[in-house]
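Re: duplicated header lines in exported structure tokens

Our pipeline writes sequence and tokens for each protein into one text file. With two proteins the header for the second block appears twice in some exports. Here is an export where it did not happen, for reference. First protein block:
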Amino acid sequence: MKRPIRSGAFRERKLYCKAKAEPAFRFYVLYDKICREDILSHAYKLARANAGAPGVDGITFEQIDASGLEAWLAGLRDELVTKTYRPDPVRRVMIPKPGGGERPLGIPTIRDRVVQAAAKIVLEPIFEADFEDGAYGYRPRRNAVDAVKEVHRLMCRGYTDVVDADLSKYFDTIPHSDLLKSVARRIVDRNVLRLIKLWLRVPVEERDSNGKRRMSGGKSNKCGTPQGGVMVP
């Protein structure tokens, strides 16, 4: 028996097929899809499955579920439709790196994670169509194990040279203007571009050892993305 196709998955497939068939095509109307009730509901389920700590507002998934998820999603959708949605500051925590030092991790609020997940559902299939087959990072249904298997396959075919490169502090130095230009090669919907710009310029909240709050970034910030959000990759 064939499994039923989820309606959202069907839409994602259509976006992918359109982008794959027409590499120069630019998408003008996407924001309304991000605002759809079913997309936001699915985005919440994805965010809920990933769990994670609360953001600067301290609100947890349990609190949202207890207070009424349907009303919460309706309120979030209304903010998007009326274009009054504004992301909250990102809570920054430092996590140790395996080789020493620390990596900054940005934790958005749950409401922002849900909107970002909704945007990712709509945008990901478009850019997925443009990626080279040999790319494995931050792609759906691909992981590091798949990359290792491909390396092993190529070694068995006689390829033995390896080029290893790492861009230092890459996410911290991405120029916003160049990033938005790259996105705009495919996405022309100004409301979607506005959303991305809001997330890029969201303030970052940090607390010192005494618990004192300090804000950085914001509208004046011209480069870097807060690592940890759904949309960062």
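Second protein block, exported in the same file:
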Amino acid sequence: MPQLLEQRMRQSLALTPRLQQSVRLLQLSSVEFQQELRAALDSNPFLEDDSLSGAEDAAPDTLASADCDSEDGALPSCAEPITSGAEAAGVVAETPYSDTVTTDFAGDPYDHGPIREHSGADNSDPTAWVRTQPSLREQLQGTLCLYRLDERDRELAQLVIEALDDDGYLRQSLSELAALAELGTPPTDQELLVALRFVQSLDKPGIGARSLSECLLLQLNAMPDDTPRRDIAREIISHHLERLARRELGELQKHIGCSTRALHEACALIRKLDPKPGNAYGRPEDNYVVPDVIVRQVRDKFVVTVNPAVLPRARINRMYADLFAQASGTNRSPLGQQLQEARWLLRNAQQRFDTIQRVAECIVAHQKAFFLYGEIALKPFVLRDVADELGLHESTISRATGNKYMATPRGIFEFKHFFPRELCTQSGGTCSAAAVRALLKEMIDAEDAHEPLSDVTLARMLTQQGIQVARRTVTKYRQQMKVPPAELRRQM
């Protein structure tokens, strides 16, 4: 076949760089957005941190000052803050774009009083007054300092403490620890074993265990000698822990030779033990939630406000922008492109918070019963309903609800929590899956502890109330609520 060269005309849709940035900023979480803004402040000379500026040269809020589309390199003019004014179903939107946010709502769980700035006269660090829970290693190191030990024993004890994981277990063997010791004479296994026993006695029983059975045995040995069924519990942990995990109570009773009541009491004693004693101490957590919006109840209305802590404190540097305009620079120059990127970032940030607030207002308006009565009043809701009401695409609503959180009087919830699946009822109506889970939780809380309700019984009780769900659906909802099955809930 001969090769041909021909021209064809066709039309296609392509996202402009500004629109691509707007879409990317919308789907970021609040923490990721702050990181993105910080990177822009570090790399773009036309952006400056508004929170570090003095009051004498403070410009209007950045999100408002970015509303300009001039292409001649002039400084963008300031505009009034934009607010979304949906007040349907008692939902009121406050203006989030202000440098100072004050609340005078009585009984507001999120109002902790005015924040006073530190004068800095004594050059002290305010974070030094923050109360923190010591970590496992810090607690053990502090207790170790109370003992008078020689240098070698102290080094071995510190070596064992540093080798503990967050659960409080020693996962490394003693031979591996001996290779890590920086001592003149390598320690023997007996010396490390003595150091391990000493560390196990420093604080909470179970710390420094090398296995689950050893952890539980250390906690049992720390109990008083007259603890009922302690000998049977020790026998189960030492030799029959796997049978207990498989709930082979008949085999356990046959091997131990005890009564049924004694076996159940010993199992109840084992269930009181902590399999991860290290979790009782503080640990550094990197995964924390910063709410994007705050919902407050003022009389019979719910007020939706963008969290002022996540609002960007950035603005265009007026001096640099004026110098660029006086130099007759063009937008095609590198500095002109950076100035345009700064304007795009601020406008897209404003649009991001505008969209998030509008979506939050729509959610609160449709799920007002949830804020009044709890999970059982949560209605079926889908993203398409929000998209139709706000006149946006469903993919935009999906980005606006992903990794976004809402602080309410009932706690902090992800936006997607307010979009439960729809279930049918016998009367032809609908209810949400969240309401069914709340109803199951109420049934389980009200059950007899000696005769707990099985999944089949729970499904039958829901059917009697007009909610048709299968037994496997009840099992799935129970597992989502982290509720054990009826056999494990039964108390003897």
